[in-house]
Write a structure and sequence with these properties.
Layout (H helix, E strand, L loop, with lengths): L15 H11 L4 E3 L2 H11 L8 E2 L2 H10 L14 E3 L1 H5 L6 E5 L5 E6 L2 E3 L3 H9 L7 H8 L4 E9 L15 H11 L4 E4 L7 H14 L2 E4 L13 H12 L7 E3 L10 H14 L4 E4 L20 H8 L1 H4 L2 E4 L3 E4 L4 E4 L9 E2 L3 H10 L10 H10 L8 E6 L6 H15 L4 E5 H7 L8 H20 L3 E5 L5 H12 L3 E7 L3 H7 L4 H6 L21 E3 L6 H14 L6
Parallel strand pairs: 1-4, 8-9, 8-11, 9-10, 11-12, 16-18, 16-19, 17-18, 19-20
Antiparallel strand pairs: 2-7, 3-7, 4-5, 5-7, 6-7, 13-14, 13-15
Helix pairs in contact: 5-6, 9-14, 10-11, 15-21, 17-18
Length: 568
Amino acid sequence: MTLSNHAPIPELYVSADAALTLKHDAGNLPSWDLTPRQMCDLELLMNGGFHPLKGFQSEADYNGVVENMRTADGALWPMPITLDVSEAFADKLEPGQDIALRDAEGVILAILSVTDKWIPNKSREAEKVFGADDLAHPAVNYLHNVAGKVYLGGPVKGLQAPVHYDFKSRRDTPNELRALFRKLNWAKVVAFQTRNPLHRAHQELTFRAAKEAQANLLIHPVVGMTKPGDVDHFTRVRCYEAVLDKYPQSTTTMSLLNLAMRMAGPREAVWHGLIRRNHGVTHFIVGRDHAGPGKNSQGKDFYGPYDAQTLFKEHEAEIGVTMVDFKHMVYVQEKAQYYPANEVPEGTTVLDISGTELRRRLREGIDIPEWFSFPEVVAQLRKTSPARDKQGFTVFFTGLSGSGKSTIANALMVKLMEMGGRPVTLLDGDVVRKHLSSELGFSKEHRDINIKRIGYVASEITKNGGIAICAPIAPYTATRRAVRDMVESYGAFLEVHVATSVEECERRDRKGLYKLAREGKIKEFTGISDPYEMPETPELRVETEGTDVDSCAHQVILKLESMGLIKA
């Protein structure tokens, strides 16, 4: 008898011949370049990972999913899967039209037959799906500030799968996994969902879960899009590969899931269950605060610790996957082994290292004990997160024209070069204008573009372990925030406000610009005819009036030492 987790499930791909014909015809269709999130969604639609969806949800399906986790025909589905597009693109389309869906290189992956086009109530979507319309939630921020204004729905014809150049042998479609389980005769398979590196507690937990369910184990990490700030997927997969040989080969396998997570807590757990069922899994480990995004804007957790398990349990029969409780595992010193937190022998010492503490130890180069993690995993993490004094960082000076930013930045550059150890690059406002932004004027829009270019270059320098020193005027708070976000993905960001008064800058007026601005010969001049939004909480504020340049640069050096970015 063939078990249900072995039978193939429907995919949305057309035959090879049909794909050739359609690809030829699709050249004349309006085409949409997919965003990274849409690429993940489309791949799982086409390969059956999102079965029973036949494409991007119609307005009726979307409304049902938002309001009560069900598509219009009553199927359980907790997550809106829609194609969000710009208003300009949507204006050119009418329901009944076909559009080509392309990857970043312009390759046509699928054809969407548009049946619905609507402007969603995004606040309602945020409230119902994520529990709150709160921008502290990464998916709510995405919904309002990244996603397009208009949603399109309709069935999809898959022409070809997106190409992945990394970890090819580790990526399996739902049908490839089902075929593997069929071949190995695995009737019961428990899946472990993770977006973090595996440490010893996770290994203990997965061993116990497989034993409890008397099942084989599928380690099924997400490598699509996870929570901003997570360890990159290349490092994580290297960490998983480093511990795979700690598992018995005959009972464990690993496969990568190209899913764009929403961090939607309880609904996400149900969604993960349905996706795993499609991949041929029979049991699923649901953790405490499963797929939680962290704190809301009031500093409280978005979801209760057991909300995800409760919602999963309510729908378990319909999901078709049995939930395995995630046990919080702790290390008992006297027994030199892991125990579930609720089974710790009385009078023993429990050792634990939190995620925050682990990051601190990596950042400061402190030892990470073997009872907590495998040396092979720690070695991979240290490659990606070296100690703080080995990481790249950006020092971003902001202040009025003539405040002394460039002079202090030059002095700082020389001091850091004297110390050695990391390459130092100075991105001075005038130099960047000459080499990167020569075509830009001084309107607000052009100044923003110029600062974002500086931020992009600084983030690349930071990513590659160098030091970037930036000294533009950067008068607007929002633009400085955008630069900080770019850089902090890769390393530390130190904002230095050079707090010289406009009167003092005008008195210095080395370049004669203030005089020209007062005469009306320079339009939109910061501090005279255009505002300078003062940083409210910079890492450092330096006063240049009555202080020499050397002292100002030394204040920055002391701040970098206190942040652990350079050795005292």
